Amino acid sequence: MSNATAGQLVTKARRGFTLVELMIVVGIIGILAAIAIPNFIRFQAKSKQSEAKTNLRAIFTGQRSRFGERDRYASLIAEVGFAPERGNRYLYDLGPVVGGFGACGSGTLEPRTAPTIVPGSYSGVEADIQRYAGTGYVTANLVAGAGGAGAVTWALSGGSVTPIANGTVGYDLLVCPLCDFAACAIGNVDNDVASDLWYIGSQFSMLAAGGCSEATAAGSQDQPGWAVNAKSDINCQN
Description:
alpha+beta
């Protein structure tokens, strides 16, 4: 083999990618990332929101057990055995401690801003600021970020003197054992200014579209014990 032929083979062996080839590869990677990353973020957010639904269903189960034993629902989380472990992403509220109804997040909430929990009579728990640092998890900001949620209409069941009004949680002490209850959860899965808001209650409910809500299908109702999604960032994504 001549020296010229050997040099040509070495040159071909050392030949790399052209700029056009590299640009095509980078473009393909960019397209795949643009498709995959939003889907991954959405899937991750959905998995985070399962915490709210699971805990609200636990509250519903505890309330029904309480009703079976005492002929009334509870306004204190200790009465239904609800004690989420530290690191909870969501705020939970059963309503005013004295009964009646109030805005979600306005009850007497167990503070979780310090390493130790202060004993007391609580109608709910705050989101754990020790685990999820940031202003998005502060109670006031969570409540404010839930504004503009879809309107929840609760069907009147039993004989409540005061039906559950839109956007409120609690239960009516005056007419038990025919009373009804509603509880809520507020969280922030992506640390923006908008919060995720869920309700659960003993009545059939209907949720109107708006505020990124999962609107109830026309002509149907959500069952008692169903975690109603009144506002969700996931539903705002295109």
